[in-house]
């Protein structure tokens, strides 16, 4: 009889404990942050999730953190930089939040910025940054802060601002007897149509592939912003409430892409595998940081994005560092962020991450990070690419929009697709999500 | 004398009762790790998921609000969920029919005393021990428009489709890739069952004039019916839980044609941060698996010849 009573009791105890533990991870997290931060006694350990696993990047972070720990032994004992793989970064981060394992600080990608900013997950760091001694807050480009600001507050520091550029394989272009993109830039003839003609010609003569929007792969359609920007198109209105896939500019841009892919063969179609850095692709639109993948096996050049009918639109990929409101030590974490991104440390970080500080956007500062590029290239392509740039599409409901739009756009990537009809379907599916 | 006998009987009863208690305590001690493990890692999460399914859980805003049956009502109106249920149905149907029939056919073929059968048994079983992700990545390359499959088809004059970009061909592709991954396991189970069919019954039937097909239908199938039940339960449950293959090969596309229920659940939870709604879908998935398993278990009385 003893056992008969004990087993159900144990079961109930386990169920209760499990359920309570599970509930607490979701519900109690909400109010735990601020109080514990102010009540924190003694030096604290901070944790920051990052997507980079580069030893050089992490060594620099550790160096900056060690300085601060040394200067503030009463406030900090350590800062841990937790590297999470790029592919699963946001998923892992939100899973940590769901599990009550909230980091103090985190890198956040631009596409998720509105969702994080508007949810209230991030603390307002503006007062801390503005109040930090010698921080020179006004040096930060206002356009770089747009995505991370709301209601006069700032919810993340735009840590990395990497422009999209065009890498070209000049060996392939010379072999096919085509015009040099660098010369076309000089003469004002560097347009998307010129890039398409060169790509078609090199593919016909040499095989391989012509133009690739890297990482698009008929899935990450948001990377096409580097193309449709030339037509002045965008996926939704500035306030994010109206779908603009059916606007004439977008229809023209998508028609251009469709024809370049299926009529000319300038862009490799879906289901093919081609990599610019392997040497059999004529040109690729990608971020400047990818220059490190070049191994000298072919001659190359880097030029700005081509011009479209609406001129040239510079596009950057941005990442911000935010402080979680529900972390254990939000005030201390904001203080550390002010140190981490101070003018002196921003200059050190500029070795790897183009900064948002105007005073650091010089070829002399950036040349250390990009030894493969000349100062002239950096001036024209990187600094010019960051100035007046837009970021890739972002929305408070981005994850669902990304998946939904991708699903509808799949119909476009067929030879006989009706571009206008497909884009109409995209808007029909996206509208409810934009108005959520 | 009678008093003595009564006393002895009482004493024996007491000793027997003490043994029973000791046996029960020992038994409980042995099963307690499994029971505690099940409670902690099966029952408690199950209860927690049901509890979450009654809430709206915004991970970023850290809010956890009781919503009652709202997530279940949302399921009724969610067309994407209905589409993913249909995709799951097609995927499971294709997988179960193809996997079981192919596994049984291979097992019958490789049960013959012919040269080379050992090689083919190893060849068909080897994908089972290969990493699923590695297997799927290789198939991803083979199924590209200019990949190995279309090159092979081209060699015999057939212009192959862009397998992973067509709604129907993508579903066919994921089913075939999954079948080839796991058919070896079912084949081994069938092979083992076939080898337990008594030879003398087959010989007796042959003497009575039964041909190969008659012997297969009337003797082999009933004799291996418990294994068919086991394989069908495992394959149906496995088909409803297929996730990694879809994630690596098609990401649920093109469109949503290969977005099976478990992939839709993953998206809601980990891409859209809709943990409450995803929990409701998890409950639905659990109910479907449970219902199908119970259905198979109940109908076994009609077609399973004996139980082992």
UniProtKB/TrEMBL annotation, chain A:
It comes from the Bacteria. It holds the Pfam family SBP_bac_8. Keywords: Signal, Transport. InterPro entries: Bact_solute-bd_prot1, SBP. It is found in: Cell envelope. The keyword Signal applies. PROSITE patterns: PROKAR_LIPOPROTEIN (PS51257). CDD domains: PBP2_TMBP_like. Gene3D superfamilies: Periplasmic binding protein-like II. Transmembrane segments: none annotated. Its main location: other. PANTHER family: ARABINOSE-BINDING PROTEIN-RELATED, SN-GLYCEROL-3-PHOSPHATE-BINDING PERIPLASMIC PROTEIN UGPB. Belongs to the bacterial solute-binding protein 1 family. This is Carbohydrate ABC transporter substrate-binding protein (CUT1 family). It comes from Georgenia muralis.
From TrEMBL, chain B:
It is found in: Cell membrane. GO terms for biological process: transmembrane transport. One of its GO terms (cellular component) is plasma membrane. Pfam families: BPD_transp_1. InterPro entries: ABC_transporter_permease (IPR051393), MetI-like (IPR000515), MetI-like_sf (IPR035906). Residues 85-296 form the ABC transmembrane type-1 domain. It comes from the Bacteria. Keywords: Cell membrane, Membrane, Sugar transport, Transmembrane, Transmembrane helix, Transport. Its main location: membrane. The chain crosses the membrane at residues 24-54, 90-110, 122-142, 162-180, 223-246, 275-295. It is a multi-pass membrane protein. The keyword Hydrolase does not apply. Belongs to the binding-protein-dependent transport system permease family. This is Multiple sugar transport system permease protein. It comes from Georgenia muralis.
